[in-house]
Write a structure and sequence with these properties.
The complex is a heterodimer of chains A (162) and B (403). With 162 residues, chain A is mostly beta strands. Chain A contains no helices and nine strands. In chain A, a hairpin with a 4-residue loop joins strand 6 and strand 7 (109-115). With 403 residues, chain B is of the alpha/beta class. Classes of the chains: A mainly beta (162), B alpha/beta (403). Chain A: Residues 64-133 form the ChsH2 C-terminal OB-fold domain.
Chain lengths: 162, 403
Amino acid sequence: MSKAKLPAVEGWFTMSPSDDTPRPVGADPVALIGTRCTESGTYFFPPERVMSRAPGFSGSELVEVELSTRGRLWSYTDAQYQPPEPFEAPTDPYEPFCLAAVELETEQLVVLGQVVAGVGIEDLVVGMEMELVLGTLYEDEDTEYTMWKWRPVAETTAGGEA
Amino acid sequence: MSVDQVAVLGVGMHPWGKWGRNFVEYGVAAAQDALADAGIDWRDVGFVAGADTMRNGYPGYVAGATFAQALGWTGIPVTSAYGACASGAMALDAARQRILSGMCEVALVVGADTTPKGFLKPNKGERGDDPDWLRFRLLGMTNPAYFAMWARRRIDLFGASSDDFAQVKIKNARHGLNNPYARYRKEVTAEAIAASPTVSSPLRLLDICATSDGGAAVVLTSMEYARKHLSSSAGSADPLVKVAAISTVTPTFPNTILEMPNFATDSAAGISRPERGFKQAIGDSAYAQAGLGPDDVDVAEVYDLSTALELDWYEDLGFCGVGEAEKILRDGVTTLGGRLPVNLSGGLACFGEAVPAQALAQVCELTWQLRGTAKGAQAENAKVGITANQGLFGHGSSVILTR
Protein backbone atom coordinates (compact mmCIF):
# COMPACT_ATOMS: atom_id res chain seq x y z
CA MET A 1 0.00 0.00 0.00
CA SER A 2 1.47 3.32 -0.99
CA LYS A 3 1.62 6.02 1.61
CA ALA A 4 -0.48 9.15 1.55
CA LYS A 5 1.41 12.29 0.65
CA LEU A 6 0.80 15.37 2.74
CA PRO A 7 2.59 18.70 2.65
CA ALA A 8 4.69 19.22 5.78
CA VAL A 9 3.22 22.70 5.99
CA GLU A 10 -0.17 23.79 4.70
CA GLY A 11 -0.49 26.55 2.09
CA TRP A 12 3.19 27.36 1.53
CA PHE A 13 3.76 25.35 -1.65
CA THR A 14 1.81 23.63 -4.38
CA MET A 15 2.12 19.89 -4.60
CA SER A 16 1.43 18.02 -7.77
CA PRO A 17 -0.27 15.72 -8.63
CA SER A 18 -2.34 15.57 -5.45
CA ASP A 19 -2.84 19.32 -5.62
CA ASP A 20 -6.24 20.04 -7.20
CA THR A 21 -5.41 23.51 -8.47
CA PRO A 22 -5.47 23.57 -12.29
CA ARG A 23 -1.92 24.15 -13.46
CA PRO A 24 -0.65 25.64 -16.71
CA VAL A 25 0.82 23.19 -19.16
CA GLY A 26 4.55 22.76 -18.60
CA ALA A 27 4.48 24.28 -15.12
CA ASP A 28 6.91 22.96 -12.52
CA PRO A 29 5.35 20.32 -10.30
CA VAL A 30 6.13 22.33 -7.19
CA ALA A 31 6.12 26.04 -6.57
CA LEU A 32 6.26 28.19 -3.47
CA ILE A 33 3.08 30.08 -2.77
CA GLY A 34 3.66 33.71 -1.93
CA THR A 35 1.53 36.79 -1.89
CA ARG A 36 2.08 40.02 -3.76
CA CYS A 37 1.12 43.45 -2.56
CA THR A 38 -0.57 44.80 -5.68
CA GLU A 39 0.15 48.47 -5.04
CA SER A 40 3.82 48.33 -3.97
CA GLY A 41 4.70 45.26 -6.05
CA THR A 42 6.52 43.60 -3.16
CA TYR A 43 6.28 39.86 -2.48
CA PHE A 44 5.92 37.93 0.74
CA PHE A 45 7.05 34.43 1.56
CA PRO A 46 5.75 32.63 3.57
CA PRO A 47 2.53 34.09 2.17
CA GLU A 48 1.36 37.10 4.15
CA ARG A 49 -2.43 36.89 4.23
CA VAL A 50 -3.46 39.49 6.78
CA MET A 51 -2.03 42.78 5.54
CA SER A 52 0.79 44.03 3.37
CA ARG A 53 3.92 44.52 5.48
CA ALA A 54 5.22 47.19 3.12
CA PRO A 55 4.99 50.38 5.20
CA GLY A 56 2.44 52.75 3.67
CA PHE A 57 0.60 50.02 1.78
CA SER A 58 -1.60 48.62 4.52
CA GLY A 59 -4.72 49.08 2.38
CA SER A 60 -3.27 47.29 -0.63
CA GLU A 61 -4.72 44.02 -1.84
CA LEU A 62 -2.67 40.85 -1.35
CA VAL A 63 -2.93 38.34 -4.16
CA GLU A 64 -1.67 34.79 -4.07
CA VAL A 65 1.12 34.05 -6.56
CA GLU A 66 3.45 31.18 -7.34
CA LEU A 67 7.05 32.27 -6.93
CA SER A 68 9.82 31.63 -9.46
CA THR A 69 11.01 28.05 -9.24
CA ARG A 70 14.58 28.88 -10.20
CA GLY A 71 17.11 31.24 -8.66
CA ARG A 72 20.77 31.81 -7.87
CA LEU A 73 22.49 30.35 -4.82
CA TRP A 74 22.99 33.23 -2.35
CA SER A 75 24.65 31.12 0.32
CA TYR A 76 24.72 27.56 1.61
CA THR A 77 25.79 25.35 4.45
CA ASP A 78 25.13 21.89 5.85
CA ALA A 79 23.97 20.27 9.07
CA GLN A 80 26.68 17.87 10.14
CA TYR A 81 24.94 17.18 13.44
CA GLN A 82 21.30 16.19 13.74
CA PRO A 83 19.23 19.31 14.43
CA PRO A 84 17.23 19.19 17.68
CA GLU A 85 13.45 18.67 17.98
CA PRO A 86 11.04 19.44 16.47
CA PHE A 87 13.21 18.35 13.52
CA GLU A 88 12.32 14.82 12.39
CA ALA A 89 15.27 12.97 10.92
CA PRO A 90 14.20 11.11 7.77
CA THR A 91 16.86 8.44 8.25
CA ASP A 92 18.28 6.45 11.12
CA PRO A 93 21.21 6.77 11.48
CA TYR A 94 21.15 10.48 10.74
CA GLU A 95 22.61 11.60 7.43
CA PRO A 96 23.91 15.18 7.07
CA PHE A 97 22.19 17.35 4.45
CA CYS A 98 22.87 20.70 2.84
CA LEU A 99 20.85 23.88 3.20
CA ALA A 100 20.57 26.53 0.52
CA ALA A 101 19.54 30.18 0.45
CA VAL A 102 18.41 30.97 -3.08
CA GLU A 103 17.84 34.44 -4.49
CA LEU A 104 14.82 34.77 -6.80
CA GLU A 105 15.38 37.42 -9.44
CA THR A 106 11.82 38.55 -10.12
CA GLU A 107 10.77 38.58 -6.49
CA GLN A 108 14.13 39.92 -5.24
CA LEU A 109 14.07 37.83 -2.13
CA VAL A 110 16.11 34.95 -0.72
CA VAL A 111 14.37 31.69 0.27
CA LEU A 112 15.82 28.89 2.36
CA GLY A 113 15.39 25.23 1.73
CA GLN A 114 17.06 21.90 2.24
CA VAL A 115 19.11 20.65 -0.69
CA VAL A 116 18.13 17.26 -2.12
CA ALA A 117 19.96 14.22 -0.77
CA GLY A 118 23.13 13.28 -2.57
CA VAL A 119 24.35 16.85 -3.04
CA GLY A 120 27.31 17.75 -0.84
CA ILE A 121 28.92 21.03 0.14
CA GLU A 122 31.61 20.47 -2.50
CA ASP A 123 28.91 20.45 -5.22
CA LEU A 124 27.70 23.95 -4.36
CA VAL A 125 29.04 27.35 -5.43
CA VAL A 126 27.55 30.75 -4.64
CA GLY A 127 25.84 32.11 -7.75
CA MET A 128 24.96 28.74 -9.32
CA GLU A 129 21.46 28.18 -10.63
CA MET A 130 19.12 26.21 -8.40
CA GLU A 131 15.66 24.81 -8.97
CA LEU A 132 12.80 23.86 -6.70
CA VAL A 133 11.76 20.22 -6.46
CA LEU A 134 9.33 18.28 -4.33
CA GLY A 135 11.02 16.11 -1.73
CA THR A 136 10.29 14.16 1.41
CA LEU A 137 10.86 15.77 4.77
CA TYR A 138 10.10 12.65 6.80
CA GLU A 139 7.69 9.73 6.88
CA ASP A 140 5.67 7.96 9.50
CA GLU A 141 3.82 4.64 9.19
CA ASP A 142 1.21 5.73 6.71
CA THR A 143 2.15 9.23 5.56
CA GLU A 144 4.97 10.83 3.63
CA TYR A 145 5.36 14.50 4.53
CA THR A 146 6.53 16.45 1.51
CA MET A 147 8.55 19.62 1.45
CA TRP A 148 10.14 21.87 -1.15
CA LYS A 149 13.84 21.32 -1.69
CA TRP A 150 16.51 22.99 -3.78
CA ARG A 151 18.59 21.16 -6.37
CA PRO A 152 21.40 22.47 -8.56
CA VAL A 153 20.20 22.85 -12.16
CA ALA A 154 21.84 20.02 -14.07
CA GLU A 155 23.88 22.11 -16.54
CA THR A 156 25.58 24.09 -13.83
CA THR A 157 26.48 21.31 -11.39
CA ALA A 158 30.18 20.82 -10.90
CA GLY A 159 30.12 17.31 -12.34
CA GLY A 160 33.90 17.14 -12.43
CA GLU A 161 34.80 19.69 -15.11
CA ALA A 162 34.16 22.86 -13.11
CA MET B 1 19.70 63.81 18.06
CA SER B 2 21.96 63.71 21.08
CA VAL B 3 20.35 62.12 24.16
CA ASP B 4 20.97 63.04 27.82
CA GLN B 5 23.31 60.78 29.71
CA VAL B 6 22.81 58.59 32.75
CA ALA B 7 25.55 57.23 35.01
CA VAL B 8 26.77 53.65 35.36
CA LEU B 9 27.36 53.64 39.08
CA GLY B 10 27.88 49.94 39.54
CA VAL B 11 28.33 46.72 37.58
CA GLY B 12 28.55 43.08 38.60
CA MET B 13 28.68 39.62 37.11
CA HIS B 14 28.36 35.99 38.15
CA PRO B 15 31.04 33.90 36.39
CA TRP B 16 29.91 32.18 33.18
CA GLY B 17 29.98 28.38 33.15
CA LYS B 18 27.75 25.35 32.98
CA TRP B 19 26.75 25.41 36.61
CA GLY B 20 23.29 23.91 36.15
CA ARG B 21 21.74 25.95 38.95
CA ASN B 22 18.67 28.19 38.95
CA PHE B 23 19.15 31.37 36.93
CA VAL B 24 17.84 33.48 39.80
CA GLU B 25 20.94 32.61 41.81
CA TYR B 26 23.27 34.06 39.14
CA GLY B 27 21.14 37.18 38.75
CA VAL B 28 21.03 37.85 42.47
CA ALA B 29 24.80 37.36 42.81
CA ALA B 30 25.42 39.78 39.93
CA ALA B 31 22.94 42.30 41.37
CA GLN B 32 24.57 42.22 44.77
CA ASP B 33 27.99 42.75 43.19
CA ALA B 34 26.66 45.68 41.15
CA LEU B 35 25.04 47.28 44.22
CA ALA B 36 28.24 46.83 46.24
CA ASP B 37 30.26 48.26 43.36
CA ALA B 38 27.95 51.29 43.33
CA GLY B 39 27.97 51.61 47.10
CA ILE B 40 24.17 51.60 47.07
CA ASP B 41 21.77 49.81 49.40
CA TRP B 42 19.09 47.72 47.65
CA ARG B 43 16.44 49.72 49.53
CA ASP B 44 17.57 52.85 47.67
CA VAL B 45 16.82 51.33 44.25
CA GLY B 46 13.70 52.86 42.69
CA PHE B 47 13.16 50.60 39.68
CA VAL B 48 14.13 47.10 38.55
CA ALA B 49 14.33 45.97 34.96
CA GLY B 50 14.85 42.27 34.23
CA ALA B 51 15.99 40.71 30.96
CA ASP B 52 13.86 37.63 30.36
CA THR B 53 14.95 34.06 29.74
CA MET B 54 12.67 31.74 27.76
CA ARG B 55 14.13 28.56 29.19
CA ASN B 56 13.33 28.92 32.85
CA GLY B 57 9.56 28.79 33.02
CA TYR B 58 7.31 31.53 34.32
CA PRO B 59 9.95 33.18 36.55
CA GLY B 60 12.11 33.56 33.44
CA TYR B 61 9.35 35.42 31.58
CA VAL B 62 8.87 37.84 34.46
CA ALA B 63 12.52 38.33 35.31
CA GLY B 64 12.10 41.84 36.75
CA ALA B 65 9.68 40.67 39.43
CA THR B 66 11.61 37.44 39.97
CA PHE B 67 14.79 39.33 40.83
CA ALA B 68 12.92 41.98 42.86
CA GLN B 69 11.32 39.26 44.97
CA ALA B 70 14.61 37.40 45.42
CA LEU B 71 16.34 40.58 46.57
CA GLY B 72 13.46 41.29 48.97
CA TRP B 73 10.27 43.12 47.97
CA THR B 74 10.54 46.85 48.52
CA GLY B 75 7.41 47.89 46.65
CA ILE B 76 9.19 49.45 43.68
CA PRO B 77 7.91 49.18 40.09
CA VAL B 78 9.41 46.57 37.78
CA THR B 79 9.53 45.74 34.10
CA SER B 80 10.68 42.70 32.17
CA ALA B 81 12.06 42.84 28.66
CA TYR B 82 12.42 40.19 26.03
CA GLY B 83 14.37 40.92 22.86
CA ALA B 84 16.34 37.69 22.38
CA CYS B 85 20.06 38.54 22.62
CA ALA B 86 19.20 42.24 22.93
CA SER B 87 17.03 41.67 26.03
CA GLY B 88 19.62 43.15 28.37
CA ALA B 89 19.89 46.34 26.31
CA MET B 90 16.11 46.69 26.19
CA ALA B 91 15.94 46.37 29.98
CA LEU B 92 18.77 48.90 30.25
CA ASP B 93 16.86 51.27 27.98
CA ALA B 94 13.74 50.95 30.15
CA ALA B 95 15.82 51.92 33.18
CA ARG B 96 17.38 54.84 31.33
CA GLN B 97 13.95 56.14 30.33
CA ARG B 98 12.72 56.00 33.93
CA ILE B 99 15.72 58.02 35.05
CA LEU B 100 15.64 60.55 32.22
CA SER B 101 11.93 61.13 32.72
CA GLY B 102 12.59 61.92 36.37
CA MET B 103 10.52 58.99 37.65
CA CYS B 104 13.42 57.51 39.59
CA GLU B 105 17.06 58.22 40.42
CA VAL B 106 18.45 54.72 40.84
CA ALA B 107 17.61 51.69 38.71
CA LEU B 108 18.88 48.12 38.77
CA VAL B 109 19.05 46.05 35.57
CA VAL B 110 19.59 42.29 35.79
CA GLY B 111 19.87 39.44 33.27
CA ALA B 112 20.69 35.80 33.95
CA ASP B 113 20.30 32.45 32.23
CA THR B 114 20.65 28.72 32.67
CA THR B 115 21.02 26.91 29.36
CA PRO B 116 20.76 23.24 28.48
CA LYS B 117 23.50 21.37 26.63
CA GLY B 118 23.64 21.48 22.84
CA PHE B 119 21.90 23.57 20.21
CA LEU B 120 19.49 26.25 21.40
CA LYS B 121 16.03 24.99 20.40
CA PRO B 122 12.42 26.07 20.74
CA ASN B 123 10.30 25.12 23.74
CA LYS B 124 8.33 21.90 23.44
CA GLY B 125 4.89 21.57 21.87
CA GLU B 126 3.35 21.64 18.37
CA ARG B 127 3.44 25.24 17.24
CA GLY B 128 2.80 25.42 13.51
CA ASP B 129 2.34 29.20 13.60
CA ASP B 130 5.70 29.92 15.27
CA PRO B 131 8.47 30.56 12.71
CA ASP B 132 11.08 29.57 15.30
CA TRP B 133 9.44 26.16 15.73
CA LEU B 134 8.86 25.79 11.99
CA ARG B 135 12.45 26.48 10.94
CA PHE B 136 13.59 23.50 13.02
CA ARG B 137 10.72 21.29 11.89
CA LEU B 138 10.67 22.11 8.18
CA LEU B 139 14.31 22.94 7.49
CA GLY B 140 16.46 21.76 10.38
CA MET B 141 17.88 25.31 10.37
CA THR B 142 19.81 25.69 13.64
CA ASN B 143 21.36 28.99 14.73
CA PRO B 144 24.83 27.85 13.57
CA ALA B 145 23.36 27.16 10.12
CA TYR B 146 22.41 30.84 9.84
CA PHE B 147 25.85 31.88 11.14
CA ALA B 148 27.37 29.62 8.50
CA MET B 149 25.32 31.18 5.70
CA TRP B 150 26.68 34.61 6.67
CA ALA B 151 30.23 33.26 7.01
CA ARG B 152 30.01 31.73 3.53
CA ARG B 153 29.11 35.17 2.18
CA ARG B 154 32.37 36.58 3.59
CA ILE B 155 34.30 33.83 1.82
CA ASP B 156 32.43 34.39 -1.41
CA LEU B 157 32.35 38.20 -1.43
CA PHE B 158 35.65 39.11 0.21
CA GLY B 159 37.83 36.04 -0.16
CA ALA B 160 37.89 35.38 3.58
CA SER B 161 39.33 32.04 4.65
CA SER B 162 38.76 29.60 7.48
CA ASP B 163 42.12 30.71 8.80
CA ASP B 164 40.89 34.31 9.01
CA PHE B 165 37.98 33.07 11.11
CA ALA B 166 40.36 31.05 13.29
CA GLN B 167 42.41 34.18 13.97
CA VAL B 168 39.36 35.75 15.64
CA LYS B 169 39.09 32.80 18.00
CA ILE B 170 42.81 32.82 18.75
CA LYS B 171 42.68 36.55 19.55
CA ASN B 172 39.61 36.30 21.77
CA ALA B 173 40.95 33.25 23.60
CA ARG B 174 44.10 35.24 24.43
CA HIS B 175 42.09 38.24 25.54
CA GLY B 176 40.00 36.13 27.91
CA LEU B 177 42.86 34.16 29.46
CA ASN B 178 42.80 36.03 32.78
CA ASN B 179 39.17 37.09 32.90
CA PRO B 180 37.73 35.57 36.08
CA TYR B 181 34.19 35.77 34.66
CA ALA B 182 34.99 33.85 31.45
CA ARG B 183 34.07 30.17 31.13
CA TYR B 184 36.89 29.17 28.77
CA ARG B 185 40.32 30.43 29.77
CA LYS B 186 42.94 28.77 27.64
CA GLU B 187 44.83 29.51 24.46
CA VAL B 188 43.53 27.96 21.27
CA THR B 189 45.74 27.13 18.30
CA ALA B 190 44.89 27.30 14.61
CA GLU B 191 45.59 23.56 14.47
CA ALA B 192 43.04 22.84 17.21
CA ILE B 193 40.41 24.90 15.42
CA ALA B 194 41.10 23.22 12.08
CA ALA B 195 40.93 19.83 13.80
CA SER B 196 37.58 20.54 15.47
CA PRO B 197 34.61 18.97 13.70
CA THR B 198 32.58 20.92 11.16
CA VAL B 199 29.16 21.83 12.55
CA SER B 200 27.80 23.76 9.58
CA SER B 201 30.26 24.37 6.77
CA PRO B 202 32.39 26.52 6.77
CA LEU B 203 32.13 26.81 10.56
CA ARG B 204 33.78 24.37 12.90
CA LEU B 205 32.93 23.67 16.51
CA LEU B 206 35.56 26.15 17.74
CA ASP B 207 34.21 28.89 15.44
CA ILE B 208 30.82 28.80 17.16
CA CYS B 209 30.03 30.05 20.65
CA ALA B 210 28.77 27.67 23.28
CA THR B 211 25.66 28.21 25.42
CA SER B 212 26.36 29.04 29.04
CA ASP B 213 24.96 29.90 32.44
CA GLY B 214 25.73 33.37 33.76
CA GLY B 215 24.38 36.59 35.15
CA ALA B 216 25.14 40.30 34.83
CA ALA B 217 23.77 43.43 36.47
CA VAL B 218 24.12 47.19 36.08
CA VAL B 219 23.15 50.03 38.43
CA LEU B 220 22.14 53.16 36.54
CA THR B 221 21.52 56.52 38.19
CA SER B 222 20.82 60.07 37.15
CA MET B 223 23.95 62.17 36.60
CA GLU B 224 22.98 64.41 39.48
CA TYR B 225 22.51 61.49 41.86
CA ALA B 226 25.87 60.04 40.82
CA ARG B 227 27.74 63.29 41.48
CA LYS B 228 26.16 63.71 44.92
CA HIS B 229 26.71 60.07 45.77
CA LEU B 230 30.36 60.11 44.76
CA SER B 231 31.12 63.28 46.70
CA SER B 232 29.57 61.89 49.87
CA SER B 233 30.35 58.18 49.96
CA ALA B 234 32.30 55.20 48.75
CA GLY B 235 31.69 53.05 45.68
CA SER B 236 34.03 52.20 42.84
CA ALA B 237 32.71 54.53 40.15
CA ASP B 238 35.90 56.48 39.56
CA PRO B 239 36.19 57.72 36.90
CA LEU B 240 32.44 57.89 36.41
CA VAL B 241 31.25 55.99 33.33
CA LYS B 242 28.20 57.29 31.49
CA VAL B 243 25.68 55.76 29.11
CA ALA B 244 25.83 57.92 26.00
CA ALA B 245 23.60 55.73 23.83
CA ILE B 246 21.38 52.67 23.82
CA SER B 247 20.22 51.57 20.39
CA THR B 248 17.53 48.92 20.06
CA VAL B 249 16.41 49.65 16.50
CA THR B 250 14.48 47.21 14.31
CA PRO B 251 15.06 46.55 10.59
CA THR B 252 13.67 48.83 7.91
CA PHE B 253 11.54 47.21 5.19
CA PRO B 254 12.72 45.57 3.03
CA ASN B 255 15.26 43.75 5.18
CA THR B 256 17.11 41.77 2.53
CA ILE B 257 19.61 40.00 4.78
CA LEU B 258 18.47 36.62 6.04
CA GLU B 259 17.53 36.88 9.73
CA MET B 260 16.96 34.15 12.29
CA PRO B 261 14.44 32.45 12.41
CA ASN B 262 13.01 33.50 9.04
CA PHE B 263 12.45 31.32 5.97
CA ALA B 264 13.05 34.16 3.56
CA THR B 265 14.18 37.76 3.38
CA ASP B 266 11.85 40.63 2.58
CA SER B 267 11.44 41.34 -1.11
CA ALA B 268 13.08 44.35 -2.73
CA ALA B 269 10.95 44.01 -5.86
CA GLY B 270 8.51 46.79 -5.04
CA ILE B 271 10.31 48.97 -2.51
CA SER B 272 14.02 49.62 -2.80
CA ARG B 273 16.47 48.52 -0.13
CA PRO B 274 17.28 51.00 2.64
CA GLU B 275 20.64 52.66 2.19
CA ARG B 276 21.93 51.15 5.44
CA GLY B 277 21.23 47.55 6.38
CA PHE B 278 19.83 46.42 9.72
CA LYS B 279 23.12 45.73 11.47
CA GLN B 280 24.59 49.00 10.25
CA ALA B 281 21.51 50.83 11.49
CA ILE B 282 22.03 49.41 14.98
CA GLY B 283 25.38 51.19 15.25
CA ASP B 284 24.22 54.29 13.36
CA SER B 285 21.49 54.93 15.91
CA ALA B 286 23.93 54.56 18.81
CA TYR B 287 26.45 56.94 17.23
CA ALA B 288 23.70 59.49 16.56
CA GLN B 289 22.47 59.40 20.16
CA ALA B 290 25.99 59.82 21.51
CA GLY B 291 27.02 62.45 18.97
CA LEU B 292 30.06 60.29 18.24
CA GLY B 293 31.40 58.27 15.32
CA PRO B 294 33.51 55.17 14.72
CA ASP B 295 36.72 57.22 14.87
CA ASP B 296 35.97 58.13 18.49
CA VAL B 297 35.76 54.51 19.65
CA ASP B 298 38.65 53.16 21.75
CA VAL B 299 37.33 49.73 22.68
CA ALA B 300 34.45 47.47 21.62
CA GLU B 301 32.57 44.38 22.72
CA VAL B 302 30.81 42.80 19.73
CA TYR B 303 28.70 39.68 19.43
CA ASP B 304 30.90 36.87 18.15
CA LEU B 305 28.20 34.20 17.91
CA SER B 306 30.65 32.89 15.36
CA THR B 307 34.18 33.98 14.58
CA ALA B 308 33.07 35.24 11.16
CA LEU B 309 30.33 37.38 12.70
CA GLU B 310 32.87 39.38 14.69
CA LEU B 311 34.35 40.40 11.34
CA ASP B 312 30.93 41.50 10.05
CA TRP B 313 30.61 43.79 13.07
CA TYR B 314 33.91 45.58 12.32
CA GLU B 315 32.34 46.72 9.07
CA ASP B 316 28.81 47.28 10.34
CA LEU B 317 30.11 49.51 13.15
CA GLY B 318 32.35 51.42 10.75
CA PHE B 319 35.70 50.31 12.17
CA CYS B 320 36.80 49.66 8.57
CA GLY B 321 35.37 49.58 5.08
CA VAL B 322 33.29 46.71 3.72
CA GLY B 323 35.52 43.74 2.97
CA GLU B 324 38.40 45.06 5.07
CA ALA B 325 37.70 43.29 8.36
CA GLU B 326 40.13 40.44 7.75
CA LYS B 327 42.86 42.97 7.07
CA ILE B 328 42.40 45.02 10.26
CA LEU B 329 42.20 41.78 12.24
CA ARG B 330 45.47 40.54 10.76
CA ASP B 331 47.09 43.96 11.23
CA GLY B 332 46.38 43.67 14.95
CA VAL B 333 44.08 46.70 15.06
CA THR B 334 41.50 44.80 17.11
CA THR B 335 43.97 42.98 19.37
CA LEU B 336 45.04 44.23 22.81
CA GLY B 337 47.65 46.93 22.12
CA GLY B 338 46.04 47.79 18.78
CA ARG B 339 44.17 50.99 17.93
CA LEU B 340 40.72 49.53 18.65
CA PRO B 341 40.81 46.34 20.71
CA VAL B 342 37.66 44.23 20.28
CA ASN B 343 36.34 41.72 22.80
CA LEU B 344 38.96 42.19 25.49
CA SER B 345 36.62 40.17 27.74
CA GLY B 346 37.29 37.22 25.48
CA GLY B 347 33.86 37.66 23.88
CA LEU B 348 31.39 34.86 23.36
CA ALA B 349 34.37 32.73 22.34
CA CYS B 350 35.40 32.63 26.02
CA PHE B 351 31.99 33.11 27.61
CA GLY B 352 29.44 31.19 25.58
CA GLU B 353 26.04 32.73 25.29
CA ALA B 354 23.80 33.33 28.31
CA VAL B 355 21.22 35.17 26.25
CA PRO B 356 19.50 37.68 28.61
CA ALA B 357 22.76 38.41 30.44
CA GLN B 358 24.92 38.97 27.40
CA ALA B 359 24.16 42.57 26.44
CA LEU B 360 24.61 43.54 30.11
CA ALA B 361 27.87 41.60 30.38
CA GLN B 362 29.16 43.71 27.49
CA VAL B 363 28.28 46.85 29.46
CA CYS B 364 30.01 45.49 32.59
CA GLU B 365 33.17 44.78 30.62
CA LEU B 366 33.27 48.20 28.95
CA THR B 367 32.68 49.89 32.32
CA TRP B 368 35.77 48.18 33.69
CA GLN B 369 37.71 49.03 30.53
CA LEU B 370 36.84 52.74 30.82
CA ARG B 371 37.58 52.79 34.55
CA GLY B 372 40.87 50.98 33.91
CA THR B 373 39.99 48.22 36.35
CA ALA B 374 39.50 45.16 34.13
CA LYS B 375 40.82 42.06 35.86
CA GLY B 376 41.84 40.46 32.54
CA ALA B 377 43.04 42.24 29.41
CA GLN B 378 42.92 46.03 29.92
CA ALA B 379 42.90 48.64 27.15
CA GLU B 380 45.11 51.65 27.64
CA ASN B 381 43.37 54.91 28.47
CA ALA B 382 40.07 54.05 26.78
CA LYS B 383 37.49 56.84 26.88
CA VAL B 384 34.74 55.60 24.55
CA GLY B 385 33.43 52.06 24.24
CA ILE B 386 30.73 50.53 22.06
CA THR B 387 28.85 47.24 22.29
CA ALA B 388 26.87 45.45 19.59
CA ASN B 389 24.74 42.37 19.51
CA GLN B 390 21.97 40.78 17.53
CA GLY B 391 19.30 38.21 18.16
CA LEU B 392 16.29 36.50 16.64
CA PHE B 393 13.21 38.22 15.26
CA GLY B 394 14.81 41.51 14.23
CA HIS B 395 16.46 42.35 17.53
CA GLY B 396 19.82 43.95 18.01
CA SER B 397 21.43 46.44 20.28
CA SER B 398 24.33 48.77 20.69
CA VAL B 399 25.36 50.68 23.80
CA ILE B 400 27.95 53.46 23.91
CA LEU B 401 29.70 54.23 27.18
CA THR B 402 31.98 57.20 27.78
CA ARG B 403 33.93 58.61 30.68
